[in-house]
Write a structure and sequence with these properties.
The chain is mostly helical and about 180 residues long. The radius of gyration is 17 Å and the shape is globular. It contains nine helices and no strands. Helices cover about 70% and strands about 0% of the residues. Belongs to the CBP3 family. It comes from Limoniibacter endophyticus. InterPro entries: Ubiq_cyt_c_chap (IPR021150), Ubiqinol_cyt_c_chaperone_CPB3 (IPR007129), Ubq_cyt-c_CBP3-rel (IPR014569). This is Ubiquinol-cytochrome c chaperone.
Length: about 180
């Protein structure tokens, strides 16, 4: 019985994490919003979607939901570790890089979380610019990504905890949620 429950939970964690990854990899982020389609840009989008998921799950007090949320976070960091190794980062350098990426992730959690909670559109746009496109001070597509983030918050808030703990997590379509500003 215990082994079956663990296998079921692993499938749910996998389904939730796959939904987060699929949302982060939506082509409009990279084509229309001009998020750099490089490992760091993909990390930023994955982090944004993980943080949106965590924001949604923060209000759940059920221990099973909290356990599941923690397992998804662990899957995220395991995936990041694996990706670093695939990029050829040596075993001795991975822990240091992981610490840096974890600090980046939790720092983004604070800035994005505060902006989302306060419905601070300008603050969210500034945070996204600072983190995703520090090379482009103007980045005219940042407001479109901000629109997406707020649409995702609304979308996730409408999903029941029962649905999520069964492994069903739906993010909005990026193309439909973003109105990209022309250059």
């Amino acid at each position: 019985m215990f082994g079956q429950r663990r296998a079921s939970n692993e499938k749910i964690v996998e389904a939730l994490y796959e939904a987060i990854v699929a949302a982060a990899r939506q082509e409009p982020f990279y084509a229309q919003a001009q998020v750099p389609d490089i490992p760091l840009g993909r990390y930023e989008m994955l982090s944004l979607h993980m943080l949106l998921f965590l924001r949604r799950m923060k209000r759940e007090t059920d221990p099973a939901a909290q356990e599941l949320t923690q397992a998804v976070v662990e899957e995220f960091f395991k995936d990041i570790d694996h990706s670093l190794r695939e990029l050829g980062i040596g075993d001795s350098s991975v822990p240091k890089r992981m610490k840096k990426l974890a600090r980046m992730f939790y720092g983004r959690g604070e800035s994005y979380g505060a902006a989302l909670e306060d419905n601070d559109i300008e603050g969210m746009t500034r945070a996204l610019k600072r983190n995703i496109r520090p090379d482009d001070e103007k980045w005219p597509q940042a407001p479109a990504l901000t629109q997406y983030a707020f649409a995702a918050v609304r979308n996730l808030d409408e999903q029941s905890a029962a649905q999520i703990v069964r492994g069903r997590l739906v993010f909005p379509d990026a193309a439909g949620a973003m109105q990209v500003v022309a250059d």
